[in-house]
Design goal:
Blueprint: E1 2-5, H1 11-18, E2 22-29, H2 33-43, E3 49-53, H3 66-75, E4 81-86, H4 91-100, E5 106-111, H5 124-133, E6 139-143, H6 151-160, E7 166-170, H7 176-183, E8 191-195, H8 201-208, E9 216-220, E10 240-245, E11 248-251, E12 266-268, E13 271-276, E14 290-291
Parallel strand pairs: 1-2, 2-3, 3-4, 4-5, 5-6, 6-7, 7-8, 8-9
Antiparallel strand pairs: 9-13, 10-13, 10-14, 11-12
Length: about 290
């Protein structure tokens, strides 16, 4: 039997159901844990796509860590797409991935904010090995924790990510220098998204100018000015629209996953969107958006 494994499969029956099935795509919840991924690695030699979503923490029965990733990498050498919500990851797991999965084109990992110690930070060495081994990687998403990727790791993305067309980064780097080093490379990068970063507005704008193939960028949660005026440094790129949304305090009910009746006041960090357009500014912007260019 060849096909797909649905993500609503319960952890207790996962091991039994996946054996003797020729799967090319597996999509499950992270509750299957490392044990579930070890079953995948042992039985799904032709697997092309693996997606592990985040489940309900109240019913969590297992956790995905470097142990599960290593098992999948060594057992499923034909993988082209991996997206994981993980509780822990280390350099060795990324090195194994770079060695055993040369066909990987799309790698995405979100490191969950649970209480795992994460002793092997930063992941610079592992990211370098991943990029060196997976020569056709064109999409990379790393949503990590503070300290998980240093400026050096970002420089590796710039130097070795020659085929990257899409990058998503969260909580990476230590200073403006790190993003500047990334922007010195990545010659084919077309789409960039960043969240919860330490970079300043002016430095982001100056670095983005260096990315010649860039067509779209979205950044939320950075060291912004009150009106986004330092983003105007990007106007040297022709036909670019730049839209800025200042920090919004006292928001409630408009955040995904929150109780709309909650009285809790939250703050949405400043964000900006910039994109290449030949038709000029759009005319449907909400009042909260400041059109800079």
């Amino acid at each position: 039997m060849r096909g797909h494994m649905p993500m609503n499969l319960q952890p207790w029956c996962f091991s039994t159901s996946i054996k003797n099935v020729c799967l090319i795509c597996v999509q499950v919840l992270n509750g299957v844990g490392d044990e579930g991924l070890e079953v995948v690695g042992a039985n799904c030699k032709n697997l092309r796509r693996l997606r592990v979503e985040s489940g309900d923490a109240d019913f969590q029965q297992g956790y995905v860590t470097q142990r599960g990733l290593v098992a999948v990498a060594r057992g499923c050498e034909k993988l082209e797409y991996i997206a994981l919500y993980m509780s822990d990851i280390n350099n060795a797991a990324l090195e194994v991935l770079g060695e055993w999965c040369p066909n990987l084109k799309d790698f995405r990992v979100v490191l969950l904010l649970d209480e795992f110690p994460n002793r092997d930070f930063p992941l610079d060495r592992g990211v370098r090995a991943l990029l060196e081994g997976c020569h056709d990687l064109n999409r990379l998403a790393l949503y990590l924790k503070r300290g998980a990727l240093s400026n050096t790791g970002m420089s590796y993305i710039g130097k070795l990510g020659k085929k990257l067309r899409y990058i998503l980064l969260g909580q990476v780097g230590h200073s403006d220098e790190g993003f500047s080093w990334l922007a010195d490379g990545c010659p084919r990068l077309e789409r960039l998204e960043m969240r919860d970063c330490v970079f300043t507005e002016g430095s982001i704008a100056k670095s983005l100018v260096k990315l010649k193939s860039l067509k779209y960028v979205w950044v939320q949660g950075y060291r912004a000015t009150s009106h986004g005026h330092e983003l105007l440094a990007m106007t040297v790129k022709p036909h670019w629209n730049i839209e800025f949304i200042p920090e919004q305090k006292g928001c409630n009910g408009g955040h995904e996953g929150l109780d709309p009746w909650s009285s809790e006041e939250l703050t949405r960090p400043a964000q900006f969107l910039a994109y290449h357009s030949l038709v000029g500014k759009r005319k449907d912007c909400p009042e909260t958006v400041i059109q800079l260019a």
